[in-house]
Every structure is written in C-alpha cells, then in structure tokens.
Amino acid sequence: xxxxxxxxxxxxxxxxxxxxxxxxxxxxxxxxxxxxxxxxxxxxxxxxxxxxxxxxxxxxxxxxxxxxxxxxxxxxxxxxxxxxxxxxxxxxxxxxxxxxxxxxxxxxxxxxxxxxxxxxxxxxxxxxxxxxxxxxxxxxxxxxxxxxxxxxxxxxxxxxxxxxxxxxxxxxxxxxxxxxxxxxxxxxxxxxxxxxxxxxxxxxxxxxxxxxxxxxxxxxxxxxxxxxxxxxxxxxxxxxxxxxxxxxxxxxxxxxxxxxxxxxxxxxxxxxxxxxxxxxxxxxxxxxxxxxxxxxxxxxxxxxxxxxxxxxxxxxxxxxxxxxxxxxxxxxxxxxxxxxxxxxxxxxxxxxxxxxxxxxxxxxxxxxxxxxxxxxxxxxxxxxxxxxxxxxxxxxxxxxxxxxxxxxxxxxxxxxxxxxxxxxxxxxxxxxxxxxxxxxxxxxxxxxxxxxxxxxxxxxxxxxxxxxxxxxxxxxxxxxxxxxxxxxxxxxxxxxxxxxxxxxxxxxxxxxxxxxxxxxxxxxxxxxxxxxxxxxxxxxxxxxxxxxxxxxxxxxxxxxxxxxxxxxxxxxxxxxxxxxxxxxxxxxxxxxxxxxxxxxxxxxxxxxxxxxxxxxxxxxxxxxxxxxxxxxxxxxxxxxxxxxxx
Length: 646
Prior knowledge:
Layout: H1 12-28, H2 38-61, H3 66-95, H4 103-111, H5 115-121, H6 141-162, H7 168-186, H8 192-196, H9 203-214, H10 225-238, H11 248-268, H12 274-279, H13 282-289, H14 291-310, H15 320-348, H16 350-361, H17 365-391, H18 397-412, E1 425-426, E2 441-442, E3 449-450, E4 463-464, E5 469-473, H19 475-479, H20 481-487, E6 492-495, H21 501-513, E7 520-524, H22 533-543, E8 548-552, H23 561-574, E9 578-581, H24 583-587, H25 603-645
Parallel strand pairs: 5-6, 5-7, 7-8, 8-9
Antiparallel strand pairs: 1-4, 2-3
C-alpha cells in the first residue's frame, strides 16, 4: 500500500513559536521568570504529534515500521544538532577557559542521546546559582535527550497499547500521573534531578500521547477555539510566575502548563478552528518552522557571547546588548540551518546529500566554490572541537582558586614561624616593622619613642598579630586563605564553600561558648544571600564588648550584593566595636584578579582581600594607640605644667 503524505495539522507551528519564544526570552531577558515552561509545551506537542504519526502509519500498514521512523527522526534531528555542537565547541575553543570545562562529557551526552543523565551524574545545575562554577555550553540539549529517549522507546511500546480496545487514554494518563508523582517525591533543594529526569519529566509527552488517543474519536467535538485561546493566554501568564524550588513548580507549574497545552492543541487542530488559522499566521509559522534551530542555537550563543564580553556565565547575568546580539544571531543561524542543513537532509537523506555535494564539485565555479567552502568548514569545526576537548581544563577557575586556598589553609595551620604571643601586637620594636623616630631616642620600655624632653612621641604604626584574629567566612575567604596567612600568620581561619550567615552564626556561637574567640573576629559571609540585621546584632552579642567585630563587604555579580553591603555599612556605622573591611571597594576595578565566575579571587586577588581585612584590623589597633598617645600626652602636659609651677 503506498504511503500517503501526512496531512499537516493546523496551529502546531504557531504553538511551537510560542514555546520557543518563552524559552528564549527566559534565557536572554529577565522578563519571564518561568519561561522555562516553554519546554513543556514542546513536550506535549512532540508526544501528540509523534503518536499521531505512528498511529496513522499503523492504520495504513498494519504495523509500525521502526527503522523507517527512526530514520526520519535522525534526518530531522541529527544534522542540526551536529552543526550546533561542532560550531559551538570550536568557537568555545577560541575563547578558552571555563567555557571548556566538562565539554568532553557534554559531547558524550549529546552523541548518546543521554545528555540529561550525563549532566545529572556530573552534578550539573540547570538553574545555575552561586555554586555554578562554569558555564555549560550545551545545557539546552537536556530536553532533546528526553525527547530522543521517548522516540526510541515509545514506538516499541505503542503496539502493545494499541492492542487495547479500551483504556488507551487511561494508560497514558496513568503514566503521566506516575511521572508527576515521582517528581513530587524526588524534588529537593536542587530540582535539577527532577527537571532533567526522563522519568520525572515525561508527563508532558504522555499527556500529548493521551490527546493523540482521544482525538480520532473526537474530531468534531474538540475543545472550543475560545477555550484554546484562553489556554494559550494562561500559559503565557504562568511564564510570569516566579518559580520555587519545590513541588509547587516541579512538577506543579510545569504540569499546569502541560494540561493547558493539551487544551490549546485540541482547540487548534479541530477542523475549521479559527484558533488554528490565527496560529498559522506567517510570522508565527516562520518562527515555528525554525523553532528547532532557534532552540538549539540560542543557548550556546548566549554562553559564548556572555563569557567573551563579561567573563562570567549567563547564569549570573546577560547584558542587554549581549541578549539583543544573541537574538539576532540566533535567528540568522536558525535560518541558515533550516535552508542549507535541515531541509536538504530531511528531503534527500544523508547519502543523497553527500552525493549532492560530490556532484557540486563537478559543477560550475560557483557550485565548486560552495562545495569546497562547505567541506572546509566541516573539517575546520571538527578540528576545532577536537582541540577544544583536548584543551579543556579539568576544573573551573573558581574551583581551582578555592582548592588552592584550601591547600594554603591546610599548610598554614602548621606554620610556627611567628614569634608573637596571643594578645600581643607587632609594634615598632619588631625587626620586620622597625620604624625610625626622627629627633627622638628609642627607649627600651616596650618600643615607644620619647623625645629628649620626656614628651611622648606618636606611636609607630602597628600590625596586629594573626594570633589575635579569628576569621569565619565563605568560599571567597577560603580562596583568599593564602593571602590571609601571609598577612596574618597564625590567624584562626574557618572558611567553607556555600556557607551562609546562619551557618557562620552557629560557628561563632560555638567558639564564643568555648571561650575560643580572639581579640578580632572577622566575618565574611555576605556572598551567598541577603543578610538579616537581627543576625548581625546576634553576631555582635556573641563577640561581646571586649572584642572587635570586623565585617567584610561582599563582591559578586548577584542582585542581592548591594543590599548586603548596605546592611553591613549601616550596622558598622551604628554599632560600637564594629568595623568594616571593604573587600568590595578593594576589588572593584580589578575584576581581572577574580576567577571566571567574577566572585572568587586568585592569588593576587587574595592578597587584596587579606590587605582589606588586615588594614581594617590594624586601623582599629592604631586608632586605640593614638587615643592612648593623646591620653599620655595630656598626662605629660599636666605633669609638665605642675613641674614648671613648682
């Protein structure tokens, strides 16, 4: 029986356009905090369309021709994915650094249709955040992996389901419910496992399957177009909802978007539906036909452009000009891919496409030039990808500087090259800091300078010994540990990755309870989130009136940092016995001393951090010495006046 061409279903290209626009805006602009649900719109469309095509083939041929189906899927997916992967990896090689971290495993995930599981095993986070150490170049391939796994497994299972005369829809709905329930049970602090998992994110695909089972029996009784239009409006409205980390989003929000997509498809494909005609307007149809390429290109391009211009990941922020440039380049790349890669291979097949290139070499000058350029470009991106994998660092620069800091801290804990006892300060009699007293004689009563007439001279600058310092901080302090140890040998340093203020409070509480706090208590805990003034008050209470609390300002490309620094400055201005170590000002304008995440300092940056802390402590000590000097001077003046009066 000859195979008839599948009839085009109205409205699906328009829905694809809506889906891809939601995702692109989510990644490039801050307007849609839940634009990620566009992926779930894609999933429902894919589940519905693939099942519809497979059922049509089963009706025409009495069976599903698996090899033919998989061949069509390969023609549709592999050329575009291959071009994006090779070009993106080659461009990443020209940039170098953190953008290459983990590239080998990303390529392996792309090649095996298992990107989502490879990413989960590697501990990757879709949602970035402060712990995101390196930009993930091919992150968006996770959803294609879920679909590709569906394309492999579902054609094998569908014939079994089709044996059921009744209950097909219930089977699909039950499987979707099981997937959603698994998501509820597994979601935790990091929802990436649930979001990436084929088992926990298959509900959209399966709801699309259920719709495909329903539709043949309800061709004329489909969802009213008005209801479908409201469903699309509701999907867009949901994209403005700020998602949470728990089941209310994973799967709650995404499941709601999937159900609404089912209603939208049912209304759009209904014969004679005005919604289908609206969704098929030329601009939406153009975007929908190229939605696959747009989805593929937009993420690698925004990663490459953001890293190249700001040295940070788009997880941190995407400058408006970078977002606009990414959007333009994405549309151009998607159009080129659609015309010269996707459509030729889809229509001719792989072997025929290769033969067409071979024939071009025997054609006219223009065709020969085009064929030569295509082959040369292919060889170039393959070589570039190979070089990118070979040159990829094993860890991100931020991880490297933190590891170096941890090593320095471990080595520094055994140092005994400092002779100052706890409670002492390095003063002018220390050989390392010996200062001259002009027109004065150096006495042997503690290193103070006195003038010949007995008038006390100003004290020489002092540097506080590390043995008088307790420091509690996060990964920024940990990365700076080498600089802190060099500046203040013997300092008590407790720093850890991802430490929040609440965790630091518990540490200071414990040290205070055990009587182990030293004269100066340094706290650098503003990087990982906002600070509550009540926590600062509690911190000062633990430190007590006899000690000095030193608060370190934060510097990171995060939206809460200005608020954190304002809180720290306000508290330091108002509370006695509190001073500020202004790390933010010390590193501003010197961001080249930070790792690729724009947060953690390298060796030179760590020295700046240590100087900011050490200078703040020394200033407190020297201010006290100057106050003591003024008291001594006043006492001397009174005594001298009394002596002269006699």
